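Hi V.,

You were right to ask for the full record rather than a summary. Here it is.
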Amino acid sequence: MPRFRPHFIPLLAVLLLAALAVPTGAAASQSQTTYFEAGSTLITTHDQPKLFTQMQTLGVKALRIEMSWASVVPSAGSASKPAIDAKNPVFYAWGPYATAIAQAKALGWPVLLTVTSPVPRWATSNKKAPYVTRPDQRDFQEFMTAVGSEFGSQVSVFSIWNEPNHPAFLLPQWNSNGTPASPRIYRGLYQAGYAGLQAAGLSHPKVLFGETAPTGYDTVSPRREGSRALLHDVAPLAFLREALCLNAHYGRKGSCGKLQMSGYAHHAYTKAVNPHWVSPKADDVTIGSLSRLSRALDLAASKGAIPSHLPIYLTEFGVQSFPNRELGVSVSQQVEYDAIAEHIAWSNSRVVAFSQYLLKDDPLGGKPGSSVAGGTVGFQTGLEYVNGRPKPLYLGWPLPLTVSRGHGRFALWGLVRPAAGSTKVTVLVKAKHSHSYRVLKTVTTNSRGYWALSSGTAGETWRVRWKSPTGRKYEGPPIHAY
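Predicted structure:
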């Protein structure tokens, strides 16, 4: 996202071995797209072509871009709406968004465009910073008409709002009695945005609902906590239910109609633990508990609130590393956990998109939650440190690798991300007390670059090597078995 924000239970080995017997198992998502989000770097860089070349080398093939309403509209800081035809894209300063989208289109990369806050001052209900309070639905509909008119032929998927269940992006989150307020506000914004895209001539726009943050609360107590209670996140499944006019048991309440959408977008971040970790709070959804979300979507569909069999898009994800001491792990663990998380997503047939958030780390900010009090919280999920120096993940992201123990054997899974089709990749292993790696096997990937291997050879660490058709050499960092 373009600005700072707040913010072990292993699988049974036998199931892992069965799932990994071939790289295209029945349970896997055969058409999973991995979106890459460079964050503000993409919008603020003075050399977008160089950045695109770097992303191509890493194996990027799809792009997520967040566009804040206030960043392109005229007179964003004014309390009065400018006298323009807000539906006409000619009045907006699309700037680096337009050039980035055009470049991605030229490369054949699908673009996911998330339109989000902050919004123009004149479009808020209170005209006060941080300009995220009750955005005007009519104004947003007009803006989305302009967005659809400008980018409708270049954007593959639209998504409306970033983390609307988080107070950094939408206010109020709660009513004064401690019940959620943001879900109904978001529902109205989503409907307005969808209508705006239709008004731009996209009769059946591909639009994602949700973009929810992974954790939060079902209720809060202003009486006990005071005004601080109103700045908590709403738990994603509580948010989903309320936005779809469902009660805690997924029964219909009120007279809300069915919402049209092409998928549910979610940010399945987790804590500084193995990605298989599951939050004890039933309405949280981290990468290790995606079944909670698919079940919730199925229950909502059974009540006629949304289309059936809705796919899940994990549109923002990353593993935080040191120097973040609150949520980070070591940079060597970051590589391993990031690959494990991607494997979890790939193994889930409901998940059609995964993502990597950040090329370069944000500057280190305050503790989680600082942004709701006016501070900043930087993300250290990047492939590079804030100074541009590469982390181990820079080498590991193009060649993700997981190694799992089970019954005296090891199940390996991986991806050659830069490959354009089936290719050969060399798997290496280093035995305990050895000082060097030896070739374990050369394996052939499927047409999308995925591969799997079951081996009885024990090792301390594993890594992979690949040489591109143009001669570029790739070598992943050491990976431990889990």
